[in-house]
Design a protein that fits this description.
single chain, alpha+beta, Peptidoglycan synthesis regulatory factor (PBP3), Domain 2, Beta-lactamase, 29% helix, elongated, disordered N terminus
Length: 396
């Protein structure tokens, strides 16, 4: 009898202390999915490279070789980004004054003698930060890029180091700057990186207001006109042109449109465009390529709700309890090009320990279209209890 009692006690002890089987977490299989409509057919340029995206969404598609190419004055997108990051302005603020020194005039004279794009200055002149940014972005003054670099960092070399640091921090992996103006062929990037940068620039109210101006009046230079010949056409509200014989014609643009009945902004870039025998202007070639891309992308955008709140994206299963659903905590509507592939990935932890209450966050569902990446937390739809004593004693 004693032996039986001892064996029973031993059985109970073993059953109570042995590891409980793991809770299994499994994802619900999602079918491959694409945005509605036939695959978008965009009017990409026949040369160079290009990219297109939507503000607030990200890069959607690219075309051509994604290798760094000279940027010309498109470089000034990063010049303005660093200046406004270091010296923020509201949409209408003037900011501090920047005095024009004799050395600034010397730089102006030297740049003009080389045939660079310049804005006239004279000793003793005062340009507000906003006026300097207008001179940088509207008539594209190369000498103003140097002026702002010296004002912000003490020297152009120190400022260029800031530009490259910013490129690294922003994840612009194909971008490197050699100067603040873009005259140097070593300032290089890709259309994709410049679309990403332009979206960040356009999120700044002061930048957005400046690049939308058709002209500006400066103290000494007087009336200066925006180099962007497409401004105000096809919904275009900016952003920056560039041209050198090495870079060819470059144009990063933003165009207002509507999507799902709501305002939206297309952001794109065409780089390394060159003229032809019948149309020799490389910058005009960039404008033509951009206009075609804007028109075609405007009709190719699509939206769809791909995740709804409360959808089951996975399940927890334990031998002592029924399965517990893992539900999405919010809906997701994505924007992209018609026919563009949507990828959905459910990520669950490798180890789950009970008990868990209802509403416990566990895992995520990640939705991707182009650059857009939306992460939705998952929660338990009901409680998952710990293994009960009776089950532990009877489970063999």
């Amino acid at each position: 009898m004693i032996v039986v009692v001892l064996l029973a006690v031993a059985y109970v002890v073993v059953q109570l202390v042995r590891p409980v089987p793991a809770v299994r977490a499994s994802a619900s299989a999602g079918a491959p999915h694409a945005l509605p409509g036939a695959a978008a057919s965009l009017s990409w340029p026949s040369q160079g490279q290009a990219a297109i995206g939507v503000e607030g969404v990200g890069l959607l598609d690219t075309h051509g070789a994604e290798t760094p190419t000279p940027l010309a004055s498109v470089t000034k997108l990063m010049t303005a980004y660093v200046v406004l990051r270091d010296h923020p302005l509201s949409a209408t603020a003037s900011g501090p004054d920047i005095p024009i020194s004799p050395s600034d005039v010397t730089i102006y004279d030297e740049d003009r003698a080389r045939g660079d794009s310049v804005v006239a200055v004279q000793p003793g002149e005062q340009l507000s930060e906003r006026q300097a940014l207008e001179a940088l972005l509207i008539p594209s003054g190369d000498n103003i890029a140097t002026l702002l670099a010296d004002w912000d960092a003490g020297s152009e070399a120190a400022f260029v180091a800031k530009m490259n640091e910013a490129a690294r921090e922003l994840g612009l992996r194909s971008t490197h700057y050699a100067d603040a103006s873009g005259v140097a062929p070593g300032s290089r990037s890709t259309a994709a990186d410049q679309v990403r940068l332009a979206m960040l620039d356009m999120a700044d109210p002061a930048f957005r207001a400046i690049v939308a101006m058709p002209q500006v009046t400066l103290p000494i230079a007087g009336v200066q006109y925006n180099v962007d010949a497409l401004l105000g056409k096809d919904g275009i509200v900016g952003v920056k042109t560039g041209f050198t014989t090495t870079a060819g014609g470059c144009f990063v643009f933003a165009a207002d449109t509507t999507l799902g009945g709501k305002p939206a902004t297309i952001v794109g870039a065409v780089l390394h465009q060159f003229g032809t025998a019948t149309q020799p202007s490389a910058l005009t070639a960039a404008f033509d390529a951009a206009a075609a891309l804007v028109t075609s992308s405007d009709h190719a955008l699509a939206q769809e709700a791909v995740v709804h709140r409360g959808e089951v994206a996975g399940r927890l299963r334990a031998p002592w309890a029924g399965s517990v659903a893992l539900e999405t905590t919010r809906g997701v509507t994505v924007t992209g090009l018609s026919g563009q592939q949507i990828t959905t990935t459910v990520r669950l932890p490798g180890k789950v320990t009970a008990p868990l209450p209802a509403g416990h966050r566990l895992g995520t569902e990640v939705v991707r279209v182009g650059d857009e990446r939306v992460t939705v937390p998952l929660v338990t739809a009901g409680p998952l209890p710990a293994a009960p004593l009776g089950w532990k004693l009877t489970d063999v």
